[in-house]
Amino acid sequence: MLTRTKTKLVLVGIIGGLGLGLGGCVSQQHYDQLEMQYRAAADRNAALARENEQYLAALELQKGASDGATSTLDQLRAENERLRNQLEQTNALLAEIDGQMRELDFMDPATDRALRELAQRFPNVVVYDSHRGMLRFASDLTFNSGSDQLRQGAKDTLKALGEVLKSNAGGQYEIQIIGYTDSQPISSGTAQRHPTNTHLSVHRAISVKQLLTSLGIPADRILVAGWGESHPAVPNTPSGNTPQNRRVEIFFRPDSSGSTSISSEADTQMAPARPVDPTK
Q1: Do residues 259 and 241 lie in contact, with contact meaning Cβ atoms separated by under 8 Å?
Q2: DSSP for 94-144?
Q3: Burial zone of 60 (CB within 10 Å; 0-12 exposed, 13-18 middle, 19+ buried)
Q4: Tens digits of per-residue pLDDT, 151-177?
Q5: Measured between alpha carbons, how far is 139 from 179 in angstroms, rounded to an integer?
Q6: 35 - beta bridge partners?
Q7: What is the DSSP string of 224-243?
Q8: In the chain, which ranges are E strands?
Q9: By C-alpha distance, which of 28, 74, 99, 32 is closest to 262?
Q10: Is the pTM value of this prediction over 0.85?
Q11: What is the C-alpha to C-alpha distance for residues 146 and 127, in angstroms, rounded to an integer?
């Protein structure tokens, strides 16, 4: 069980990070920090929810016990109330960070609309998260099990994405392709080509990059990485077989070289480059 001191330290650390001001321009470092705060708050929220469920279950058990256990029941009720208050705090924090992320002047209108339309065309393959500037591909529809070879449906979706990236507006972004897996162990057959889940996640990101570069997207605009089973979207099941965590995410990021800018839909000429922090 987390002590109150530890809980306060976690919340203070997260809330303290919100002291970073939101300027008119969005730096890569600022956005990454805000996203890390969001992940930390979401993880804390999930942990508190699980802990609260455990105490609710203990309360139900205690209700059926003898009258001599009144003090234990009171303690459980007090602990449950404390957890409920912490959940309210983390929910409020999540809402605040989410609101700030949505207010960031990050995606230009033309690219945002093009990505929304792409997700509508291929709803079974990709989901678009507009306020994070991210496309999420479901790995089970993008690759066969244990493979880094793209399926035909995924190729069609990526070809459509290539057209967005080659447009005037879409051409102003760098692309970060990040692979993820669930925690299911690598099979002996898969291990010959992908020794670990991290290898598999990186190799899948590389496959996506190779297809995009074959469509004419410059390789120096694309970063690839793989988290393996780290940073799951949802808690992994005991067996590790968790389809929601098998995914590839493609992030649109401002040009870190500072050679281009993100212009509005009405712009007819390139605007002066906005200063951005280099990506890691």
Answers
A1: no
A2: HHHHHHHHHHS--S-HHHHHHHHHHHHHSTTTEEEEGGGTEEEEEHHHHB-
A3: exposed
A4: 999 999 999 999 999 999 999 999 999
A5: 9
A6: none
A7: EEEEETSS-SSPPPTTS--G
A8: 126-129, 134-138, 173-180, 222-228, 247-254
A9: 28
A10: no
A11: 22
C-alpha dist (Å) from residue 147 to 30, 123, 150, 236: 35, 22, 8, 20
| The pair of three-digit structure tokens given for residue 167, joined into one six-digit string | 């447009």
Count CA atoms closer than 13 A to 124's CA, side-chain side. Answer: 5
Distance CA 55, CA 176 (A): 41
Q: Report yes or no: 7 and 86 within 8 Å, Cβ to Cβ.
A: yes
Q: Look at the block and give the residue holding tokens 């321009």.
A: 25
Amino acid at 126: V
Contact indicator for 85, 55 with CB cutoff of 8 Å: no
Distance (Å, whole) CA 131 – CA 3: 34
Q: Which two tokens mark 260? A: 């281009």
d(C-alpha 111, C-alpha 44), whole Å: 33
Domains in the chain (CATH in brackets) are 4-103 (1.20.58), 109-254 (3.30.1330.60)
Rg (CA), the chain: 22
DSSP 3: -
| Residues 132 and 186 sit within 8 Å (Cβ to Cβ) | no
pLDDT, tens digit, 9 for 90 and up, residues 32-57:
777 777 777 777 777 777 777 777 77
Nearest Cα neighbor of 241 from 225, 227, 250, 229 is 229
Specify the 3-state DSSP secondary structure of 126: strand
Contact between 75 and 62 (Cβ < 8 Å): no
